[in-house]
Structures are given as structure tokens and as C-alpha cells.
Amino acid sequence: MAVTQLTQILELFSKFAIIGGGLWAVWGAITFGGALKDQNGPDMKSGMWQIVGGGLICAAAAIFKTVAL
């Protein structure tokens, strides 16, 4: 019973992390788009790294979901 509860908690954590990473990447895309419009180099770089970071968060959460107990 404890293992199934722990598995459910890990799945819930993974779902929230994937959603959070996706939102982080979307906000990075918004930042990147605004910087492209204004031709602002530092904000472009920031937005691009934010998109990459969101993707890494999603990937890490997906890998974390496969942890076997």
C-alpha cells in the first residue's frame, strides 16, 4: 500500500513538473518574441535560455516518472 501511494505521489509530482516546465518554456517564447520585435539582444538570449530550461524541466520530470520503486 505504501509503495502504491509513493508511486502516485511521484506521478503527481511529475505531472506538476511537466506542466510547470511547459509554462516556463511558453513564457520564454513570449519573452523571445517580444525581444525579436524590439530587436533586444539580451532579452532574446534570456528568452531562448528560458525555453531551453523549460524543455529540460519537462525532460527531467519525464525521466523522474520512470523511476522504479
Element layout with pairings:
Layout: H1 2-38, H2 41-65
Explain what the structure shows.
- This protein has helices at 2-38, 41-65.
- The chain is mainly alpha-helical.
- It is rod-shaped, with a radius of gyration of 16 Å.
Kindly summarize this structure in a few lines.
With 69 residues, the protein is an all-alpha fold. The protein has helices at residues 2-38, 41-65. It is rod-shaped, with a radius of gyration of 16 Å.
Structure classification: mainly alpha
Low-confidence stretches: none
The number of distinct helices, counting runs of at least 4 residues, comes to 2
Principal-axes geometry comes out as rod-shaped
What profile does the largest beta sheet have? none
Total DSSP E strands:
0
Name the helix and strand elements from N-terminus to C-terminus, one letter apiece: HH
Helix content: over 70%
Distance between the first and last residues' Cα: 13 Å
Average residue pLDDT: 91
Strand content: under 5%
| Radius of gyration from the alpha-carbon trace, in angstroms | 16 Å
Structural key phrases:
single chain; 69 residues; mainly alpha; 2 helices; 90% helix; rod-shaped
